[in-house]
Amino acid sequence: MPQVTFKTIDTADVAGKRVLVRVDLNVPMKNGKVTDATRIERAAPTIAELAAKGARVVVLSHFGRPDGKPVPEMSLKALVEPLSNALGKPVAFAEDCIGPLAEDAVRAMKPGEVLLLENLRFHKEEEKNDAAFIDKLSVLGDLYVNDAFSTAHRAHASTEGIANRLPAAAGRLMQAELEALDKALGNPKRPVCAVVGGAKVSTKLDLLGNLVGKVDRLIIGGGMANTFMHAQGIRVGKSLCEKDLAPTALEILEKAKAAKCTVLLPIDVVVAGEFKAGAASTVVDANACPDDQMILDVGPRSTALYEKEVRECATLVWNGPLGAFEIPPFDAGTMALARTVGQLTGTKRLLSVAGGGDTVAALAAAGVEEQFSYVSTAGGAFLEWMEGKTLPGVAALIRAA
């Protein structure tokens, strides 16, 4: 991703204006209660700042997959209270996101007030980026602020469409994400190291293909490392391995070699006969996995090698764990490297950006989530950005700059 220019709310004249703010309030819930308010808390600063500047803040979001029709349990009404708590001020609610109900609610707002509209995806036109639906959303606002990087890979009415109809800017969360990503891969300090783990090579072919041309060192871990070792003739026992992708793995290694990108695979591994907590495990050389065993983590020599390589770098991007981190003792490699990265970041020796659901969970388990320079909760959008793809929601903001 090249260095980009986009407008922020620093220069937006919002006093008295109706500002449509697209956020991501698609939070996990159980029995009608929010179980993880991280996304609400991350959305709050932009909303609060705009309200403090006298804007009439109209909040847009989706929730779940209602397939274009109202589903009571997917109503955003349940999020009014948690959003109010995060903002420290009351939030009004409109029973629809377009039409008379929304228009009347917006018309009744005073400067500094916040209104949450009903779930955008109760209308099938949202995901179709329908022109008439964009019109109905656009009449509710004078300006548009996108603060939902996590949905920026979707060309929907509320993420891409409105940005082409109204003056548009990035919110604080979107701004922080784009600036962090630009520092990590767009315009990074070198050497750059990427850590890519996870179960399957097949889900990250585009990612690996893009990274080998952009980074100086690529650490491959998790189940996908087994596929690369198998491709090189190394026996991996009962390990998870996509043997049919061996030719693709070799192509990626050749591409890395041509780009002068050093690829690091495990030199020792932790093996066990079964995948369960407390299973008997041993450390063996990477080329000595018994036929009746499976590789579930990198070994201590691999971890030490990765830590040494990371210490020599100025920038690091991370997506995916090195092993089956959910179950001890197969979390050791991921935890150790995460703590090293956190320590190096804390002493300003490394800029570190991480993202992806399993990655965020692993960093939280290691207690270092707050120590990284930036941790993205964006999931699919983060992965597509690492793959070098154009994100429609971001592209729309760049065009508007």
Describe the structure using short key phrases.
401 residues, 2 domains, 14 helices, 6-stranded parallel sheet, Rossmann fold, alpha/beta
Summed up, what is this model?
Helices cover 36% and strands 17% of the residues. With 401 residues, the protein is an alpha/beta fold.
Could you describe the 3D structure shown?
The protein is of the alpha/beta class and 401 residues long. The protein folds into two domains: 18-171 and 391-400, Phosphoglycerate kinase, N-terminal domain (Rossmann fold), CATH 3.40.50; 188-370, 3-Layer(aba) Sandwich (Rossmann fold). 36% of the residues lie in helices and 17% in strands. The strands form four sheets. The protein has a six-stranded parallel β-sheet with strand order 5-6-4-1-7-8, with helices on both faces. Strands 11-10-9-15-16-17 form a six-stranded parallel β-sheet, with helices on both faces. It has a three-stranded antiparallel β-sheet with strand order 13-12-14. Helix 1 crosses helix 2 (80-87), helix 8 (222-231) packs across helix 9 and helix 10 (300-311) packs parallel to helix 11 (332-346). The longest helix has 15 residues, at 38-52.
